[in-house]
Amino acid sequence: MGKAQKKTGKGRLDKYYKLAKEQGYRARSAFKLIQLNKKYSILESSRCTIDLCAAPGGWLQVASKYMPANSVIVGVDLVPIRPIPRVVTFTSDITTTQCRNLIRNELKDWKADVVLHDGAPNVGTAWIQDAYSQSELVLMSLKLAVEFLAKGGTFVTKVFRSVDYNNLIWVFNQLFGKVEATKPPSSRNVSAEIFVVCREFLAPKHIDPKFLDPKHVFKDLSSSINPEDKGVSMDKAQANVFHPEKKRRHRDGYADGDYTLFKILEASTFIREHDPIAALGGANKISFHSEEEKEWLALHITTEEVKANCEDLKVLGKGDFKALIKWRLALREELGIDLKAKDIEDAIEQVEVVEVVDEEQEISEELERLNAEAAARTKRERRRANEIKTRTIQRMQLQMTAPLDIGLEQSDPTLGLGQDDMFELGTKEEDLRKSRKTKLAMDADGDEDFGESSDEDMESGEEDSPLDSEEERERKVADLETEMDGMYEAYQERMRERDAKYKVKEARRKNKEREEWGGIKAKGSNDDSGAEDGEGFDNGEDGGWDKLQEAKLRDSDSSDDDGSDEEVGPTASEKKKRTREEKGIDVGPKAKKRLKVSFDEPSAKPATSAAAKVWFSQDVFGGLKLDEVDDEGEDTEDEGALSEESEIEADEDSETSETDEDSGFEVVPQDNNDDDVDMWDGDEEDQSERVQKRVRDFGLNTPEAVMIAQQLINREKTKTQLINDGFNRYSLNSKDDLPSWFLDDEAKFYKPNIPVTKEAMAALRAKQRALDARPIKKVAEAKARKKFKAAQRLEKAMKKAEGVNTTADMSEKEKAQAIDKVMRKGLSSGKKPKKDIKLVVAKGAHKGLKGRPKGVKGRYVMVDSRMKKELKAKKRKEKAAKKR
Ligand SMILES: C[S@@+](CC[C@H](N)C(=O)[O-])C[C@H]1O[C@@H](n2cnc3c(N)ncnc32)[C@H](O)[C@@H]1O
Fold first, then answer.
1. Which of 316, 459, 713, 867 could pair with 863 in a Cys bridge, judged by C-beta atoms 3.0 to 4.6 Å apart?
2. 600 and 623 assigned to the same domain
3. pLDDT band at residue 807, thresholds of 50, 70 and 90?
4. Is the pLDDT of residue 633 over 50?
5. Beta-carbon contacts of residue 839 (< 8 Å; ≥ 6 apart)
6. Which of 290-299, 448-457, 513-522 has the highest mean pLDDT?
7. Residues 876 and 844 sit within 8 Å (Cβ to Cβ)
8. pLDDT in tens, 37-84
9. 119 pocket-lining for ligand 1 (C-beta < 6 Å)
C-alpha cells in the first residue's frame, strides 16, 4: 500500500498542482477532465459543451483546448469565472430556473453533446449533510443535462461515495445507455469523489419527474431517519456509542448487498465479537434465538435491566451501554472465554516467582549499566575539562587572557610560574591595608609603630631609636607614596571595571612582566627563607623590578643587624663582600644548597630586562655570560640577587674564573657548563623565533619595521648600528622608587620615534593595497552562495522538465515548449530585471501637469530639468570612477 495522500498543507501541492501551474491551468482539477477525456474521448467530437459548476475554469480551459474550433462552450458557477477565449460564462446557481433560462437563451434551440458537472458544495464539519447536498446537486445537474443533452450525448458528474451513490447510479442507468464510475489518477486517494461517465443519452420523450426529485431518489434514506437528522444514514448509527457527538465519515456507503436499516445483533455475536462497541453502534436490537443464547437469559447475571436494554439499543444512554458491556464481560468469564480476575491474580503470582529468580541477574545487569553510564559521564567530564584547559592555554598563548583573569587551578602544572603571582596579587590588598594601618598608627601615636608588618625592624631595635626629622620626613613621603599607589590602584580598578579592553591590555602587560621578571618572583616565592617570606617579598605588584628594589633595601637593612636569622643565609652585600674580599672562604652549606636549588629551578632565571638582554647581546660582550656580568661600578646597587648568587656559584669554580677589576666585569669562560646559560639562550631563541614566525605569518606591518628591513637589505645600516640606535642615555636608567603610575605611563607613551622614509611608506601601502584587492570573506561567501543557488535552480528546472516529459497528455511540441520555458526560468538568475523608470521633465507642455503625460507608457517620474541634469552628472561620475 502506498502512502496516503495528504490533502492539507504541502500535501496539496502535489505533482498535478505543479503541472497545472506550469501549463497554465487554473485548477489542478483540469487534469481530471484530461484523464477522463483520454479514457472516453468525449471532448474531441463535441460541438457544444455545458460545464455546470465551472469556476475557476480549469475544465473550461480543457474543453476549449480539446474541442473542435467553433464549438460552443458554456460555463456556469455561483462565482464569476475569469474570461476564457471562446467560452461563454454565467454566474448563477444551477439549482435555479434562472440558470436554466440563461443556458436556454445562450443555446437557443441547440442541444449539447456533453454536460459536465464537477460541483461541490463547501464540505464542512457536517459531512453527512454536505454529502446529501452533493447528491442533490448531482441530481440538479442531471436535471439540466437531460434538458439540454442531445440524444447520444454524454453526462460527466462527480459523485461522493455515500449512501446515495447507488440510488444515483440507478437513476443514471434509467436515462443513459452506458454508465461507468471511475476515479482518474489525478483525483486524490483521500478524496471520496468518484466520476461517473454516463454515455449514450437515451433522450426519452417523457421522463418521470420522480427520477429527478431528491425526495423520491433518496426516499429510503429520508424515511429511515428522524426529522432533525436529515440525511443521516446508517453510517451515523455506526458511530461510537460512547462518543455519539463524534460523527465518523464512512465514505464506502452501504456494505455490499446490505440495504436494511433495522439491524438485529445476535447475542452470541455480541458476546464473542472483538469490537462490542462497534457492534452495539450498528445494531438496533440484541436477539436471543439459539438454545445457548436462551440459556444465557436464564443466568443470574442477565438481569431484567440487561434484557430490557437488549430490546432497543437505539434508546440507550451511556450508562446502559456500560451495563451491557459489563454483562458481556461477566458472561465471557462464565463461558471461559476470558480469564477470571482470580485466575489472572494466580498467573501474576506465578510470574512474580519467575521474576524473583531473575532478580539477581537483573540487578547485576542494572549495576553494569549504571557503571557504564558513570564511566561515560566521567569520560565526558574529563574531555570537557581538557577542552576548556586547551582552549584557555591557547588563549593565553595568543595573549588573549592571563591566568589571573581566568582563575585557572592553582595547582595546575601547566601554569608554572604564573601560580606564584596569583598568591602575590591575592595579598596585594592586604598589604595596602597594612600600610594604611601603619600610617594611621603612626599618626595617632606620633611615633614609628610599624605594627606587625615590621616585626623584623622591631627586632633590630629600630623602633626604639629616635628618628631624626629627616628620616621622619622620608617616611612620611614614603607613606604618602604608598597612599598614592593605593589610590592609583583604585583608579586602575575602576578603569578595569569600565573598560574590557583595558582589562585585556592590563592582563597582557602583567603577563609580559611575569615573563620578564619571572625569575625573581619565583625566587622570592619559592625561597623558604623566613626573613624574605615574612617581609612580604611579594608586596610589590609592579613586577620584579620593584621587588628587586625592595629586596635590596631589605638586604641592606638586614646587613645592619647581626645576622640574627640563620635561615636567611648570606645577604646580597655579604655575598658580594665574600665574593670580592674573602674569596675562597666557604659559603655556608645551607645557603649553597638553597642557591643550588634556586638555580636548578626553571623559575630562577636571571633578573635582566629585555633592554639589558639586547644591550648585552652586543659584540663587545661576546663570550660573556649575562648572569655572570657584575656591574660593579656605579650600578652596583642595581644588581639582581640572582646575578649575585651566580657570582657565588662562579666563586665555587674560582679556579676557572678570572676577575677583571678594572673593567668591572667578572669574565667567565663560555664553555662553563651552566644550565641557566642554556636557559637564557633558549629563551632568547624562543623570542626571536616568535618574532620570526609573526613576520612570516603577517609580514612587516609597520612602516618602521619596513624601513629598518630596507636599511638592512640596502646595507645602509648594520645590525650593530641598529642595536645601538635602540639605546639612549635614559635606556638603562634605574627605575628605582618610581611610582607605578609613572611606570605605567612610561610603558604607554615612552616609545622610540623612528623617522620613516618615503620608500618604506610606499612599500607598506603597496602591500596594503594588495591585501585590500583580495576579496573579503563575506564577498567570497556571497559569490559561492550565488553559485550554489544557481545550481539548485538548474537542478529543480531539470526535475520539472523531466516531469513535463513524462506527462502523457501533452503533444511533443507542447512538451518542448514547456521544457524550454522551464529551463529558461531555471537558467535565469530568478530576479526580475528592473523596469526602467522614465524621467519626464516638467517643462513645456508637461509643466504643472497632473496625471500621466501624453505619450508616456509604463512607469515614469516627473522631474524638473535640474534634477535630470544632476542625475545624469551623477551617472557620469560613477561611470568615470568605475573606469578608473
Ligand atoms: C471543484 S469546483 C469546480 C472546479 C472546476 N471544475 C474547474 O476545473 O475549475 C466546484 C465549484 O462548484 C461550485 N458550486 C457549488 N454549488 C453550486 C451551485 N449550486 N451552483 C453553481 N455552482 C456551484 C462552486 O462555486 C465551485 O466553484
1. 867
2. yes
3. confident
4. no
5. 860, 861, 863, 868, 871
6. 290-299
7. no
8. 999 999 999 999 999 999 999 999 999 999 998 899 999 998 999 999
9. yes
Count the Cβ atoms, other than its own, within 10 Å of residue 11.
Answer: 14
Query: Distance from the CA of 51 to the center of ligand 1, in angstroms?
Result: 10
Flag whether 370 is in a domain.
no
Find the Cα–Cα–Cα–Cα dihedral 408, 411, 416, 417, rounded to 10°. Answer: 80
State the Cα–Cα distance between residues 254 and 237, nearest whole angstrom.
12
Of 283-287, 501-505, 644-648, 704-708, where does mean pLDDT reach its minimum? Answer: 644-648
Its pTM stands at 0.35
Asked which of 665, 687, 709 is the last residue of a domain, the reply is 687
Is residue 231 included in any domain, yes or no? no
HSE at residue 118, side-chain half, CA atoms within 13 A, is: 21
pLDDT in tens, 105-127: 999 888 999 999 998 876 544 45
Tell me, what's the pLDDT at 552?
45
Name the domain boundary from 563, 580, 612: 563
For residues 334 and 147, give the distance between their C-alpha atoms in angstroms, rounded to a whole number. Answer: 66
Question: Does residue 197 sit in the same domain as residue 326?
Answer: no
Residue 496 burial (CB count, 10 A)? 15
Q: Is residue 433 located within the same domain as residue 498? A: yes
Any atom of ligand 1 within 6 Å of the Cβ of 56: yes
List pLDDT tens digits, range 413-425. Answer: 444 344 444 444 4
323 lines ligand 1 (CB under 6 A): no
Q: 619 and 535: one domain?
A: no
Nearest alpha carbon, ligand 1 atom 25: 78
Q: Do 51 and 192 belong to one domain?
A: yes
DSSP string, 268-285: HHHHH-S-HHHHHHH-SE
Is 118 annotated in some ligand binding site?
A: yes
34/93 same-domain check? yes
Could you tell me if 601 and 530 lie in one domain?
no
214 with 110, same domain: the answer is yes
Q: Is 58 in the pocket of ligand 1 (CB under 6 A)?
A: yes
Choosing from 32, 143, 158, 523, which is the catalytic residue? 158
Which one of 78, 123, 144, 157 would you pick to mutate in the ligand 1 pocket, going by the greatest count of ligand atoms within 8 A of its CB? Answer: 78
Residue 608 domain boundaries: 570-687
- Mean residue pLDDT of the chain comes to 70
How many domains would you assign to the chain? 5
Would residue 729 count as lying in a domain?
Answer: yes
pLDDT band, residue 100 (cuts 50/70/90)? very high
Residue 160, Cβ neighbours under 10 Å: how many? 23
Percent of the chain with pLDDT over 70: 60
- Cell numbers 563575506 correspond to 778
- Return the ligand 1 atom nearest residue 33 CA: 8
CATH of the domain at 58: 3.40.50.150
Atom in ligand 1 nearest the alpha carbon of residue 140: 19
Measure 119 CA to ligand 1 centroid, in angstroms.
4
Query: How, if at all, do strands 193-201 and 149-160 pair?
Result: antiparallel
For residue 518, the model assigns a pLDDT of 39
The four Cα atoms 566, 568, 570, 573 give a dihedral, to 10 degrees, of -130
- pLDDT confidence band for 520 (50 / 70 / 90): very low
User: What's the Cα-to-Cα distance from 851 to each of 836, 859, 862, rounded to whole Å?
Assistant: 19, 12, 10
Please tell me if the CB atom of residue 599 comes closer than 6 angstroms to any atom of ligand 1.
no
Residue 31 lies in a domain: yes
Ligand 1 pocket, residue 120 CB under 6 Å: yes
Q: What pLDDT does 364 receive?
A: 78
Instruction: Based on the residue annotation, tell me whether 158 is a catalytic residue of this protein.
Output: yes
Looking at residue 11, its pLDDT comes to 54
Compute, in angstroms, the gap from residue 152 CA to the centroid of ligand 1.
25
Is residue 57 part of an annotated ligand binding site?
yes
Which stretch, 243-257, 353-367, 719-733, has highest mean pLDDT?
719-733
- Tell me how far the alpha carbon of residue 131 lies from the centroid of ligand 1, in angstroms: 15
* Ligand 1 atom 7: residue of nearest CA: 58
The model's pLDDT over 718-755, given as tens digits with 9 standing for 90+, comes to 988 888 887 877 777 787 778 888 888 888 888 777 88
